[in-house]
Amino acid sequence: MRFVPFFYLGLVLFFSCVFWTALPAHADEAATAEYLRVPIFFLTDRNLIGDPKQSNFDFGPHRKYLGDCLHDPFLGTASVVIKNVDHKPLTEGLKRLGWEAVATDKKEGLVSDRLFDGQTHDEIAAKFYSSLKEQCELTTDKNIFVFVHGYKNSFSQAAHTAAWLAYNAERPTILYSWPSVAKLRSYSTDENNVEWSQEHFNDMIENLGKTCSDDPEIKVRLMAHSMGNRLLVRAIPLLPAQHFVAEFVMICPDVDSGLVKHYARRYFNPKGTAKIRLYMSRRDKALALSQIIHGGYTRLGECADSLSGVVSQVMGSKGGDSSSEEKKEAAADDAAFKQNMELAKHRLQTIDFTAIDRGLIGHNVPAKLICNMSFRGKPGDDLDLIMEDSGQRSKLSNTFSKITHLKDTAPAITESCLRVVRLGKNAAVTAKVTP
Question: Which residues contact 269 (CB under 8 A, 6 or more apart)?
Answer without folding.
Answer: 240
